[in-house]
Amino acid sequence: MVTRAMALPTRDELLEILTEIKDPELPVIDIVELGIVRDVVVSGDSVRVDITPTYSGCPALQVIENDIVELLRGRGFADVKVKNVFSPAWTTDWLSDATKERLREYGIAPPSGPAITSAAELVTIRRAKPTVECPYCGSRNTEEKSEFGSTACKAIHYCNSCHQPFDYFKSF
Amino acid sequence: MSDTDLFEYLLRLGDDRLVLGHRLSEWCGHAPILEEDIALANIALDLIGQATLYLHVAGETEGKGRSEDALAYFREAVEFRNIQLVELPIGDFAFTIVRQFLFDVFSFHQLEELQKSANNELAGIAAKGYKEVRYHLRHSSEWVQRLGDGTEESHARAQKAVDDLWRFTGEMFQADESDARLLAAGIAPDLKKIEPKWNAMVSDVLRRATLTIPESGHMMTGGRLGRHTEYLGHMLSEMQIVARSHPGAEW
User: Which domain holds residue A25?
Assistant: First the structure.
């Protein structure tokens, strides 16, 4: 019987392969476009994937780590390591327009406007709230109900036109 | 600055957040309105997540093979390094919110400086937490103003919370020799510089909330050295029971 060594994927190919893994909370977005995957380092049949958390306590991260190990083992790597890196800190600025559009189609309003920038915005109840477009009907007549939603990355908003509550992926 | 200094400091950072995060999680299913239930659980999750990161590095720094879970679930109360403010029972909603606000203002200024730490890993973890704390602070400061400047009852409850909690705030800024060595090494921020910023922001919000700052009097101390109120032991017995009853369990 003839055995042939299977060629292991290169770094660029791995970045493409890793797009198969979706964020468990956002199944239309993969972990590369979300900016969670920061680097891939191949050395022989070992590979190290550097990832960064979106939020410190995001429970999806553990699932994602397991998914990466399982996927790359299946692609022939004997040793798969996942390393957490923290600098630079993850930001929604890394989401492309195409990714934001897919969020909207999925029913989540994409981040709009900057994250909190000044200390004055932190401690006033008269702050300007972001104008968020309803992902269902496109109306801008919406309001923020709470800056904390179904997951760490989302806020709860409500559309006054179609009377539908919706998730907003908050600027971070 | 020794590894022991750094280990102790990481415990202080981690334990403040672990204990407060656990206290907040006690509201899950009990908050006055659904949105608040979700908000408090989210903030608890952020804080426990931050604690996980600090305690993970603490375990690595110590070099005895203790993971973040081992540090969270298998230490006794006297080994915890959190300030006493965060271990007090949750009280009513006003007490929880005022306590959160007093800590958020501290954490906001602490992490703002810690992002510049000479320890890159610590700086990175702080930078992430800093982004999260801005949302926490906005939440708690808005509530303090609504409660303080709200109804007669909400005002009275918020004022009582401020009065009861005030003597636990001095501990945030108490620096010992270990802090001095960490400061000299560029690892930790100067607590003396954080204190006036904390005072300014807290005074500003309490004034807008029509709440009165108590006269400065006796300040509680000891948490950083493992001397805690009776409440921490009770809290830990609940927090640690599953891990201790079934060591090494996975699910």
Answer: 11-84
